[in-house]
Specification:
With 251 residues, this protein is an all-beta fold. The chain has 2 domains: 123 residues, no CATH class; 119 residues, no CATH class. Helices cover 2% and strands 29% of the residues. It is built from 1 helix and 29 strands. The protein has a 16-stranded parallel beta sheet with strand order 1-2-4-6-8-9-11-13-15-17-19-21-23-25-27-29, with no helix packed on it. Strands 10-12-14-16-18-20-22-24-26-28 form a 10-stranded parallel beta sheet, with no helix packed on it. The longest helix is centred in the C-terminal third of the chain and has 4 residues.
Amino acid sequence: MIANHASFQQAYCCEGILSGPINQYSVSIDHKVGPINAKAVSINHKRGPINGEAGSINHRRGPINAKAVSINHRRGPINDKAVSINRKRGPINDRADSINHKRGPINGEAVSINRRRGPINDKADSINHRRGPINGEAVSINHRRGPINGEAGSINHRRGPINDKAVSINHRRGPINDKAVSINHRRGPINDNANSINHRRGPINGEAGSINHKRGPINGEAVSIWTSVKKIDILKWCLFNEKHYRTSFAA
């Protein structure tokens, strides 16, 4: 056990320490139980937290705070400019990078590749993100169920809504709002400068364009070709209006 030892304050390498803490620019290899503070470096640190510009490789359960780097970190959270590779369950906050992050959320300019269930917020990039929402200038490829907000782009997004300058290709059920573009959008509404090709059931509002729109209404300087069931409001022109349609759209 090392405690309050004067000669230890300037130590730079300590191997095999099992229980005592290491302070003052110390280095620990295979440190097991005690925490490491003040610009500490830990390799294969197991249970103690690392604080103060710490670096951890294969850290398992303790959290890493203040400019920490973690590779294969499993359960502890990483905060304040943290980088995590293959991190599984802990959240990553404040400009975090995560590769193959599975369940924890990533906040603050986060990047996630193959992230599955956690949400990604604030300028996040997600490839093959499945269920978590993406907020704040997010990009999602093959995003399935989570919503995307804040200048988001989604390819093959299925059920989550896309808001604020969103782009969706083959979006199925979620609504798209605020300058959204949807190709083959099926059931969700598209609002505010939206373009929809082969949109089926959702309404399109706000300077929207729809081709093969079937049941939803189109409002606000909208253009619809082959619209069948619902009424069309604020529509001054319709293709083949007099020849192919009776323009008595009931309320």
